[in-house]
């Protein structure tokens, strides 16, 4: 499965089986984590067989079997980079046959900070074998989140379609993408989640549009 295929197949999954992540798969995930940390100056960490991420009441109501997760942490102000790398990790995990869930609010923030060595967490990503494959989230139309000056090129259309597949906090999709020539600008206004959402959406847009076809401005 390619990342592009994973982007279309990945949906939020909150409930997981007790099937363990094999050592070879965990090693691949850790390698991807290391690549992201080194390239973007982050402190992301993968926790395996650790059920401390999600508070008990949330487990009872929403989640089940969340025993593996990425701690999405880095220096203060790294929200966009963490969103971007989080998108990469979720889609990469999907290519390995795993399911994911980005948790931006209902997680053990203090514990996540301690386990990441004191870095600032912006969320966790549950990862494992889902009880289901999830369902597509409700989505806005391309016209509602984008505009282009002139005839719209295919790469821009494909980028916007991919951006609409990105997970965003509270599923608000509170972003606007504007294209002109070979440049694209993104505005995102989702409160404290704006930075993370921007990174998540940018990664998806690049995957759909092809980074070689445009530049961010």
TrEMBL record:
Residues 3-209 form the Putative nitroreductase TM1586 domain. Pfam families: TM1586_NiRdase. InterPro entries: Nitroreductase-like, TM1586_NiRdase. It comes from the Bacteria. This is Nitroreductase family protein. The lineage of its organism: Bacteria, Bacillati, Bacillota, Bacilli, Bacillales.
């Amino acid at each position: 499965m390619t990342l592009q295929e994973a982007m279309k197949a990945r949906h939020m999954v909150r409930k997981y089986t007790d099937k363990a992540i094999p050592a070879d798969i965990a090693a691949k995930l850790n390698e991807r984590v290391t690549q992201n940390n080194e390239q973007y100056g982050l402190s992301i960490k993968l926790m395996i067989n650790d059920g401390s991420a999600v508070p008990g009441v949330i487990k009872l109501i929403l989640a089940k079997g969340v025993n593996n997760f990425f701690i999405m942490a880095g220096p203060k102000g790294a929200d966009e980079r963490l969103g971007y790398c989080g998108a990469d990790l979720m889609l990469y995990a999907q290519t390995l046959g795993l399911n994911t869930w980005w948790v931006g609010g209902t997680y053990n923030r203090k514990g996540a900070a301690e386990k990441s060595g004191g870095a600032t967490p912006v969320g966790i990503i549950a990862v494992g074998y889902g009880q289901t494959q999830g369902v597509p989230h409700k989505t806005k139309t391309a016209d509602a989140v984008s505009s282009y000056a002139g005839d719209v090129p295919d790469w821009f259309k494909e980028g916007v379609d991919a951006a609409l597949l990105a997970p965003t906090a509270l599923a608000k999709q509170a972003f606007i993408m504007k294209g002109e020539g070979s440049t694209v600008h993104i505005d995102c206004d989702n409160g404290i989640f704006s930075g993370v959402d921007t990174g998540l959406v940018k990664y998806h847009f690049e995957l759909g549009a092809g980074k070689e076809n445009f530049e961010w401005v």
